[in-house]
Write a structure and sequence with these properties.
The complex is a heterodimer. By secondary structure, chain A is of the alpha/beta class. Chain A is built from 16 helices and 12 strands. The chains are: A alpha/beta, B alpha/beta. β6 of chain A pairs antiparallel with β12 of chain B.
Chain lengths: ~400, ~400
């Protein structure tokens, strides 16, 4: 789905993998025109990531790339060459926003810095998404998703005591940096001040995602210790348990929810014991034992039955769904959009997570083939002739 | 933006005013971000049904105290508080009188509550057509899951997020953090500022319905596309990346000390070998290519752990980064609080709060270099700004406001 809140903006993205691409996807889905720059012949590394349609690897059929780059136009450009960098400057002169996720050492090497680029456009808003930020002792450190999860505070709390701390199951950190960058860009535009925005991926975790954790250190709270599927210092239940056909999240932060849940379970005798009167103590001291009692009942019911009970009795039960179940959830059907491209056939993916009242939502366009819009951007927008375009192609610039 | 706004701080959004009904976490965060960016944020709350985040164990003494929760202080800093008891006659009208002075309304009550209070978008846009209103909910304002009691971990379960979170082949563990609240709030901030951008150009207002479930689903690109492209569903795989080995957290010298290491390119593999001083096992056939290292990743992890075990995370990080390899310690809260990198970049500030004194508050770290966000004041006491707002904006007399406080209307 595409809205038009940001219509009239032109955004240039030089992005790889998740962070900068999801940032410009957010902008594109709001109606901005996004021009994605990729390396000639190679492209965004998400093109290699897959998953591939029917397991046939092909750089035009990587699912992650197709999802993150829908609604964009694609050009190729070799920034290793002075001509390539000059073309970038020319494109930025006709744009309002530039977002990239080059590593700081690459920015230094290629001379892609705000001071140089603003000579082409004084009002330029530029967002740099880097692993640890543009300043500080870790500026030049390398990082992948697991490293950012480790430094950002995901791993310390995920997993069992004495076993390896875990990160997210799929690469997620980039999405948080992307959301920070996209909002910051629009806020800079609202302020009407051309400027450089420095977004550190690690701080999108350590800051807004995980910032209150500093308090855990100060006040010695234990909610985020690595304690398997239970978290300390919450009232029981607040965990994922087994049911008949899989797993279910069971919560009850409010006392009345717990009382209702016990009634629905047939008011079992064990729950009447004195030692289970305080639910936080029950969680911290007897969780494994109580899991057994709970699962005795839960394993007699399917996820669907438990969800129906949750809706009927207003208790917080939620099935742990796999991605097939999510995709086939009819209540989410209108979030998913199918995009048809000649070489892939229809491919469905998630659209924006908001509904807007005063907006017509248009269907999105498919992700660009590598260099698909070279002529459209370089000739029609920037005024290069067809002969010049051919020469740029022949010399490997585009 | 409103011209009568004298209370907003400096910052890129100074001049904007927000009527903030958001509470607990997902609802409080958008207002927090907008306040850091310089907007004047009026937190509308009440003693009649207190923001849960004000409750909880007191830090000092044994009596519950709504002014003592550090989490509340973090996510409500920079806001002004007006206490309005919507169960009292006249209270709703007072809120409506504030609407013409505001640009944005944020709320995350259960779906239907704002309409029931007579404060739905239809009413508010009737008062001010350019108003931008965002409703944040677990599962959207419409649809079969609308009324499901759901919290962040519920959304972690429903969205597929939890299905990959765990050790390979074992039970899903679930996250300790409120992923869905934060993703929902951040998408809301983006939609709100985008709507303001359109409003500035066209005068068009907007109602935004954000579902935390849908927001989480939007960040499940790899997992959902795996199903879409291949028909397979993922399960827990531990620390795993389809293109990298080694990739994970490795045990170190020290109490529960770990270092994360990830290697993608051949250059990085050579850097790792150099860092380890070229042990013989690296030359074995089964570790000779990216492909074979991924195939034999468990053996590789074993060998690498044998090396990391006798060294500290900090030592390994410096050594490997000097050789071009991505490595960093697995940090706990304390590690980040005292870390020189985060210190230099200003991840945390100490804010003086009237009831608890100096306490750490995290910064959002959205570094707009010429118009940076900042924390303008401590989180408000409940109803602290009744006089300032109802007097200043609506021109009500001091005695009238005091009377309404005594009558438990502004309460």
């Amino acid at each position: 789905m595409t809205f038009s809140l940001l219509q009239g903006l032109r955004v240039v993205e030089l992005g790889e993998s998740v962070s900068a691409p999801y940032c410009s996807k957010l902008l594109a889905d709001m109606g901005a025109e996004v021009v994605k720059i990729e390396r000639p012949g190679v492209g965004d590394q998400a093109r290699e990531y897959g998953p591939f349609l029917n397991d046939q690897p092909h750089h035009e059929r990587s699912g992650l790339f197709l999802y993150l780059n829908a609604n964009k136009q694609g050009v190729t450009l070799d920034l290793e060459t002075p001509t390539g960098r000059e073309i970038l400057g020319g494109l930025l002169a006709q744009s309002q926003v530039f977002v990239h996720n080059l590593h700081p050492t690459e920015m230094d090497r290629l001379g892609v810095d705000y001071e140089s680029l603003r000579t082409h456009n004084d009002a330029l808003v530029m967002a740099s998404i880097t692993p640890y930020g543009l300043t500080g002792p870790y500026r030049n450190y390398k990082a992948y998703d697991i490293n950012l999860a480790a430094a950002g505070g995901i791993c310390e709390g995920l997993g069992s005591p004495d076993r390896e701390p875990l990160g997210f199951g799929t690469p997620e950190v980039g999405y948080f940096a992307a959301m920070a960058a996209a909002s910051s860009i629009v806020i800079a535009l609202l302020a009407g001040v051309g400027q450089h925005i420095d977004i550190a991926e690690v701080e999108s975790m350590a800051g807004i995602y995980n910032g209150p954790e500093a308090l855990m250190a100060v006040y010695q709270w234990r909610m985020t210790r690595r304690t398997g599927h239970h978290a300390l210092d919450f009232p029981y239940p607040n965990c994922i348990l087994r049911c008949k056909d899989g797993y279910i999240f069971v919560g009850s932060p409010e006392g009345r929810q717990w009382r209702t849940l016990l009634e629905v379970m047939g008011s079992p005798e064990w729950a009447k014991e004195d030692r289970f009167r305080n639910r936080t103590a029950m969680n911290n001291e007897h969780a494994d034992e109580v899991d057994g009692y709970m699962e005795e009942w839960l394993t007699q019911h399917t996820k669907a039955e438990l969800l129906a009970l949750a809706l009927k009795h207003h208790i917080p039960l939620a099935p742990v769904r796999d991605f097939g179940e999510v995709r086939n959830d009819e209540s989410l059907a209108d979030q998913f959009v199918a995009i048809e491209r000649q070489d892939t056939g229809p491919v469905s993916f998630a659209g924006p997570p908001y509904k807007l009242s005063n907006q017509d939502a248009l269907p999105p366009r498919p992700a660009p083939l590598l260099g698909q819009h070279n002529a459209g951007i370089y000739c029609d927008v920037m005024g290069y002739s067809k002969e010049e375009l051919v020469k740029l192609y022949q010399t490997g610039i585009i | 933006m409103n011209q009568d706004n004298e209370n907003s701080g400096p910052g890129p959004l100074s001049g904007y005013r927000v009527l903030d009904f958001g509470w607990v976490l997902a609802g409080a965060l958008p207002g927090m971000v907008l306040a850091d960016m310089g907007a004047e944020v009026l937190k509308v709350e009440t003693r009649q049904r207190m923001d849960y985040m004000r409750l909880g164990r007191p830090i000092i003494g044994d009596e519950p105290d709504p002014e003592q929760h550090p989490l509340f202080h973090n996510v409500n800093r920079g806001k002004l508080s007006i206490a309005v008891n919507t169960t009292k006659p006249g209270a709703i009208d007072l809120i409506k009188e504030l609407v013409p002075h505001c640009d944005v309304v944020v709320e995350n009550f259960s779906p239907g509550v704002m309409d029931r209070l007579g404060l739905g978008y239809d009413v508010l846009s009737g008062i001010k057509s350019e108003i931008v209103m965002a409703s944040i909910s677990s599962n959207g304002q419409t649809g079969p899951l609308r009324d499901l009691r759901a919290y962040a971990p519920s959304i972690g379960a429903l969205s597929g997020l939890d299905s990959t979170m765990g050790y390979e082949g074992e039970r899903p563990l679930g996250l300790k953090h409120a992923y869905a609240d934060i993703v929902g709030a951040l998408h809301s901030v983006f939609a709100i500022v985008s709507a303001l951008h359109q409003k500035e150009r066209t005068g068009q207002g907007q109602y935004i319905d954000v579902s935390m479930l849908r927001a989480t689903v939007a960040t499940m690109g790899a997992g959902l596309m795996e199903y879409e492209m291949t028909g397979r569903v993922m399960g827990p795989k531990g620390n795993y990346d389809p293109a990298m080995a080694p990739y994970g957290n490795y045990p170190c010298q020290g109490d529960d000390a770990w270092v994360s290491i990830a290697v993608r390119t051949e250059d990085e593999w050579q850097g790792l070998k150099t860092g380890m001083d070229n042990p013989a096992w690296c030359e074995e056939e089964r570790f000779s290519s990216r492909y074979s290292r991924l195939e034999n990743r468990r053996d590789l992890d074993g060998n690498l752990s044998a090396w990391t075990r006798d060294l500290t995370p900090g030592y390994i990080t410096e050594l490997l980064q000097a050789n071009g390899v991505a490595a960093i310690p697995v940090m706990g809260a304390e590690d980040r609080l005292f870390n020189p990198h985060f210190k230099e970049r200003g991840l945390y500030s100490d804010i003086e709060h009237p009831s608890l004194g100096a306490e750490p508050v995290y910064n959002i770290m959205w570094n707009l270099e010429r118009t940076p966000p900042s924390i303008h004041r401590h989180a408000p006491l409940l109803g602290e700004h009744n006089q300032k707002i109802f007097g200043g904006l609506l021109g009500m007399a001091e005695e009238e406001i005091t009377r309404l406080e005594e009558d438990q209307v502004l309460w």
